[in-house]
Structure formats: C-alpha cells, structure tokens
Design brief:
Largest sheet of chain A: none
Helix content of chain A: over 70%
Oligomer: heterodimer
Strand order of the largest sheet of chain B: 5-6-7-3-8-9
Low-confidence stretches of chain A: 1-5
Mean pLDDT of chain B: 85
Strand content of chain B: 25-35%
Structural class of chain B: alpha/beta
Radius of gyration of chain A: 21 Å
Radius of gyration of chain B: 20 Å
Number of strands of chain A: 1
Strand content of chain A: under 5%
Structural class of chain A: mainly alpha
Order of helices and strands of chain B: EHEEHEEHHHEHEHEEH
C-alpha cells in the first residue's frame, strides 16, 4: 500500500464496537427520536404517559406498603424513600428489557444494511434515560417539599448511582441483545429477572428489615454486593437521607449500608468490567446476526 | 486505477435449523431425522473489482448473488477467505429497509440517509436534490405508511442514490417505479459510474444491466462461472453449456 492511496483496503463489517456509536452520534440521535415518536405514536397524552406510569406504580406501592403495612410509620418520609429507589430500578428495568429485544426488533435493518449494531441497545438505554429525567425532577421537588436541601455530597451520590446503573445496564443489555438473537428464551429470562430485582434491593422496604432476616454472613454480603442495591441506596442517601438525618428516633444511619461511597465506586468499576465483557461477547456473536435472524 | 473490492477464496455456508425448541428437536430426533441442513451459498469465490468498474452480477435464483453482496457490504462475514473493500460501501440490498412507516417522508430522509452513512451536513446539503428526485414533495410531511408503494420506493431510491458512496451495491431495484422514473434512475446510476464510483449490480432484468455495466460476473451454484465482458456472461446465462 502506497502512502498516496487515500483509503486502505479493509474488511467490511468489522466495527470498533461502542466507539462506532460515538462516531455515529447523528444516527444514534435519530434512532432515539424515532423510538420516542413510535412509542407514543397515535396516543393523546404522548410523552405524558412516562409520568403516568410511574405515578400509578408509586401510588399502588405507597398505599399497599406505606399505609396498609404501615411502613410510613417505621420510616420517616417513606414516600421519598420509596420513590428515590423506585425511579432507579425502573430505569434499569426499562433499559434492560428494551435493550435485550433491540437487535431482534431491528431485524429488517440488521439483515440488510451494515451499521454498528451496538447502536440499538445503546439507543434503548438512552430512551430509558430520557424517561428517567422527568421522574428525577419530580423526586427533586418532592424531596424539597419535605425539607431537603441539596448538597454537593448528595448530588455526587446521585450522579454515582445513575452512572453505575447506566454502565451496568449497557453492558448487560449488549450481552442479552446478542444472546437473544440466538435464543429467544433470553427475553423471557430478562422479564423474570426484572420481576425479582425490585425485591432484591431495599427499595420497597427498609434495609434494616432485610439485615435482620439475612443475619450477617455471606447471604448478607451477597445482598449488599448487588450493584442495584448500592445504586438505590446512593439515591436514597442523596434524596431521602438528608431530610431525615436529624430524626434519630425513627431512622438512623443504620438505614444505609456501611461504606456506601466506597462500595459505589467499586460497583462502578465492576460495572465497567462487565461492560467490557458485554462488548466482547457482542462482537463475537455479532458476526452471525444477519443469518440467524 | 486501484482495486476497490477484493474477494479472496470466499466460502459461505448456511446452517438451516429445522427446529429450535426442545420439543421440535425431540420430535425430529425420535423420527431419526437430521436436526440441521446445510446449504453452500458460495464456494471458493475469488474476484477483484477495480475502482470505477461497473459490474453486473448475474445468475439464477439461489446462485449466491445476494450472499456475495451481503459479504461485500459487511452485513455478513465469510466462513473462510477474506473480503476487503476500499472506501465507503452503500448497499441498496433491499429498497426501503431503512424506512420507518410511522415517520414522515422528511424524517425518513434524515433517518435513512444516516443509516446509509451520511452525516447530518450531507443530508442537509442533498435534501433538496433528494426531494426533487423523488417527486414526492407534496407528501413530504405525510407519514410514509400512507404512501403508495411507488412513492415509497421512489423516496427510498432517491435517498440511496444521493449517499455518494465509493462503492455502490444495487440488488434488484432497477425495476423501481414507472417507466419515466426508471429511466431517471438508470441515468443517475450511469452518472454515478461516470464519476468514478464502483458499481455492483444484481438484476434479472438483463436489458437494464446492459445499460449500466460493462463487466459481467456469472455465478452458478455458488461458483464463479464467467468473469469477463457482460455480453459473455449474459450469453452463458441464456444458453448454459
């Protein structure tokens, strides 16, 4: 190859993975916009549905757990506690479910035109993040209402919790999306995981309840090693804890797992490794997407 | 002139699974049937295409033409051998694959343009030309699902021919629209060829291929049979020895 040749001979269909997604920002934006348009297509309320669904879900849990099971007497500001964990778990759930299905749903495109396939799971996560935004706004207002004052520490905790989940779900989404091409069982497994996951983190109940039952040992270690537990607790630390900190009667520091920030950073690093693993598996499996779909 | 496409001893085999579920596999196994079938789509195909060449890829159904195009575009990868290309490849493997029925014509021009590798600036620069070429201006803000099939194809084709790729793959789409539009398409493709872009055209419409291509490649049963002037390939296709 002479230096004067402007372009090299390359093998087509070998992408640079997530780096290609960055290079195709324009296309990513259009795919996200298309997803949003299609999702609310022909509906009167449109994007407003992304407020209605979590609101109803929140209402159900609040009455069932807070009022009937009296958790709002155990936990000060139970509503804020509940909502701060729930929005993050919902973000994970929506992104995970849609990312896992994304390649199969885009089959006509994947089969006929080559483009970086990572775009589809990433777009699914992006859309879920767009839906998370107004919910965080509601959370903000709710927390302010019960006497929360924003602080640098709180905002850092929230940012760490969000990035942790975003990285984690992108990695797992890539892996599941690729596997789903070969075995459609994967989307059912993903749905199953989502049913369990809400209860595996202290979101609907206080952490102290779980700790009492788990009784130390490796089960408890496993429970608090769950990155979603750490992320949910980071959100609770950010939005709920500052408002109740002074009230040592009903709550205390024992409603948060110890060394939360350190655990958060470790979980973020682990999630980055998982993202690498997901990308690697995706690249391996990608070569046969077009013929398997 | 340098080479644009090098295909080196490429083979591609498809494994057709009869059943994927446990139940189906059990039934097939108890009947003593094989669980999979294989189909050799391409076997040991080598060829090289120079920059600016216009090649007609001919062959009967199932001869491996579309598979070869998919390998060149990168949608699929060969089982053995290598495919290498120079520059940006845009394929019209199937017209309208990148069009979304729920979006308007205008939105689809952007989306489909981006899918075919155009940047935002590219799309904006060519937007007028694309719309003019398609002749669907009055329906630009209508959702594509309300388009007639002709309008749909015209829009898709217009976007595709304005993407300015270095290598342009065309699969069975020269029969788009009515006669005047077809003539316009062929004219545009000839123009792309004259600009020095590489063309690989698959079509069963031999008259159309003859208008665009000089070189012919004939595939049969996954093998390369003729690689030469287009009329040789056409003659062999019509009268296999």
């Amino acid at each position: 190859m002479t230096a004067s040749a402007p372009l090299a001979l390359v093998e087509p269909g070998r992408g640079a993975g997530l780096l290609d997604v960055v290079r195709h920002r324009f296309l990513l934006r259009l795919i996200v916009r298309q997803e949003m348009r299609v999702r609310y297509h022909g509906s009167v309320l449109g994007l407003f549905w992304s407020y209605v669904k979590p609101a109803v879900q929140f209402g159900v849990y609040f009455f069932a757990l807070g009022v009937f099971l009296r958790l709002n007497r155990t936990l000060e500001d139970f509503a804020v506690y509940l909502f701060s964990g729930l929005v993050l778990i919902n973000f994970f759930g929506e992104a995970f479910a849609n990312a896992s299905r994304s390649i199969v749903r885009s089959a006509p495109l994947v089969k006929k035109i080559y483009l970086p396939r990572e775009l589809f799971p990433v777009a699914a996560t992006y859309v879920a993040a767009i839906h998370l935004l107004p919910q965080i706004l509601v959370l903000f207002i709710g927390a302010l209402f019960v006497g929360w004052t924003p602080s640098v520490g709180a905002l850092f905790a929230a940012a760490l919790g969000f990035s942790l989940v975003a990285v984690l779900v992108t990695g797992m989404g890539l892996l599941m999306a690729a596997l789903n091409v070969y075995f459609r069982d994967v989307e059912n497994i993903v749905d199953l995981i989502l049913v369990v996951i809400v209860w595996l983190s202290p979101v609907l109940y206080p952490w102290s309840f779980a700790r009492e039952q788990l009784g130390g040992g490796w089960v408890e270690q496993l429970y608090i090693a769950n990155p979603l537990t750490i992320a949910a607790q980071l959100f609770q630390l950010a939005f709920w804890f500052p408002g109740v900190e002074t009230d040592r009667e009903t709550v205390g520091p024992d409603q948060l797992i110890p060394e939360l920030f350190t655990r958060g950073i470790v979980a973020l690093l682990v999630s980055l490794v998982l993202l690498g693993v997901g990308q690697l598996a995706f690249s391996r499996l990608e070569s046969r997407f077009a013929q398997e779909l | 002139m340098s080479v644009a496409i090098v295909v080196d001893e490429v083979s591609k085999r498809f494994v057709l699974r009869r059943g994927r579920s446990l139940k189906e596999m059990m039934v097939l196994a108890t009947k003593g049937r094989q669980l999979t079938d294989t189909f050799q789509a391409l076997e040991d195909v080598s060829l090289s295409i120079e920059q600016g060449d216009a090649v007609g890829l001919l062959g009967l159904n199932g001869s491996g033409k579309s598979t070869l195009l998919k390998l060149i575009s990168g949608v699929m990868r060969p089982d053995s051998g290598t495919v290498r290309v120079r520059g940006r490849v845009a394929g019209l493997i199937e017209v309208g694959a990148g069009l979304h029925p729920d979006l308007t014509g205008r939105e689809n021009v952007f989306l489909n343009g981006a899918i075919l590798g155009m940047s935002e600036a590219d799309v904006r620069r060519h937007f007028g030309a694309i719309v003019d070429f398609s002749g669907i201006e009055p329906f630009l803000d209508t959702e594509v699902k309300f388009y007639s099939s002709g309008m749909f194809l015209r829009l898709a084709f217009s976007v595709a021919v304005h993407t300015e790729p270095d290598i342009f793959l065309i699969d069975e789409i020269l029969s788009v629209g009515d006669e005047p539009f077809q003539a316009k398409c062929i004219e545009r493709i000839q123009q792309l060829s004259a600009e020095g872009r590489t063309l690989v055209v698959v079509s069963h419409d031999l008259d159309t291929v003859e208008k665009v291509c000089q070189r012919g490649l004939l595939l049969a049963g996954g093998h390369k049979v003729v690689d030469g002037r287009l009329d040789e390939a056409v003659a062999r296709l019509r009268h296999p020895t």
